[in-house]
Amino acid sequence: MKESILHYVWQNKLFTAHNLQTTDGESVEVIDVGKINTDAGPDFFNAKIRIGETIWAGNIEIHPNSSDWNKHNHQSDKAYDNVILHVVHRADAEVYRTDGERLPQLELVFPKQIETNYEQLFSQQKWIPCADKINLVPAIFIQSWKNALLTERLEQKMNAIERLLSETNQHWEEAFYITLARSFGFGTNSQAFESLAKSLPITILGKHKDQLFQLEALLFGQAGLLNPDEQDAYSASLKKEFDFLRAKYELKPIDGAQWKLLRLRPDNFPYVRIAQFAALIHSSSKLFSKITEHPDIEYIKQLFVCEPSTYWNTHYLFATESPLKNKKLGSQSVNGILINTVVPFLFCFASQKNNDELKDKALQILEQIPPERNSIMQNWQNLGIISNSAYDSQAFLQLKKQYCDEKKCLRCRIGHKVLTYNFTNL
Ligand code: SF4
For site-directed labelling of 263, which of 57, 343, 412, 415 has its Cα 20 to 30 A away? Predict the structure, then answer.
């Protein structure tokens, strides 16, 4: 018997609760199972149990066998002196606290189906363990779980934003600029873009925002991409400009080797993305303030309409001409930026200002963006889990990454339904 199942059964009160008795035959009533402890020490804190006529408040320790208490040396560990009940699957030994006092024990009895469902779930080699059961779970449960998952995902992103705010001395525009740069890396070059933004303060870019050429010189130069081996007249003039600005601001470029082109579509080449980023800075100022003042999706999308300099209409790289194509930021890219940067920042800002209306607006933006299209979303769709907006797809990406991939089915609301299937109403 796995200890994790016993934890799950105890936490969710799935054990047989009538006629509970300690191994000594004293009656037991579980008034409060306590709070699960994920750190060192007893498994549940602050439980409340009646044993015989006495109500006890304290901790609970759970093991498959009583003898595990001694195997883990709890009999000589004072951290376990506040345990009021030892909950086990099989009582095979007496156990004692450090002062030699005997501890009451309870053998946990629960429906066999939970263990059977658990074993079936974890023996699956499917895309996700519950792939052949998820369609049994009513949509209403999935809906409420989806809301919790989305909040959890935004809170994780908020933690990263708060770390950045602390690094930038609570400078919202600077933190937004760094995160925005990161999202221009679209995964493959996100880290390089973040390093670039951190190496080039927004205040310096702000001084040159009216000159797209100078913005390109600063960004390409700092990115380490003005390579003399790939030079044409345009990149040579950018290099000349950058050398001047570099000396003026005492800049130290990042290592150009960080940028990756392998397996990228040309539209995603870092050269194109940097040119677009320069154009965005050129066409906007105080971007984050504008977004907080007008949290409207159409207005925000307009802020991201920007065209790189004409050189990029015929280039994906320096010194290599390509057929004419406008390189303005596409709508899918803008949606990705809204999902990964704009909405988390708005949500974080609204949370810090206790502004529930703004929080709702941030969520409404997600509801107005089409769902992401990738192999994970396709797999969910194959299982009948349909996303109608980015709100849904973000929730299901969170579920896959944080729960299914980690096999945390015991902490998943769908998992709860699947595990208790056959003896509770779904
Ligand atoms: S975590 Fe939840 S959705 Fe994912 S496989 Fe487990 S039970 Fe299914």
Answer: 343
What is the C-alpha separation between 96 and 221, in angstroms, rounded?
A: 69
Q: Which pLDDT tens digit goes with each residue over 302-347?
A: 999 989 999 999 999 999 999 999 999 999 999 999 999 999 999 9
128 lines ligand 1 (CB under 6 A): yes
Closest ligand 1 atom to Cα of 418: 7
Looking from the CA of residue 411, the nearest atom of ligand 1 is 1
CB 3 within 8 Å of CB 63: yes
User: What sign results for the dihedral spanned by CA atoms 408, 412, 414, 420?
Assistant: positive
Closest of 234, 180, 173 to residue 242, by C-alpha: 234
Q: Is 376 in the pocket of ligand 1 (CB under 6 A)?
A: no
- 272 pocket-lining for ligand 1 (C-beta < 6 Å): no
The answer to whether the CB of 415 is under 6 A from ligand 1 is: yes
User: 399 φ, ψ to 5°?
Assistant: -60, -45
399 lines ligand 1 (CB under 6 A): yes
Chain segment 25-83, per-residue pLDDT in tens: 999 999 999 999 989 999 999 999 999 999 999 999 999 999 999 999 999 999 999 99
**Neighbour tally for 152: CB within 10 Å:** 15
Closest-CA residue, ligand 1 atom 6, reads: 409
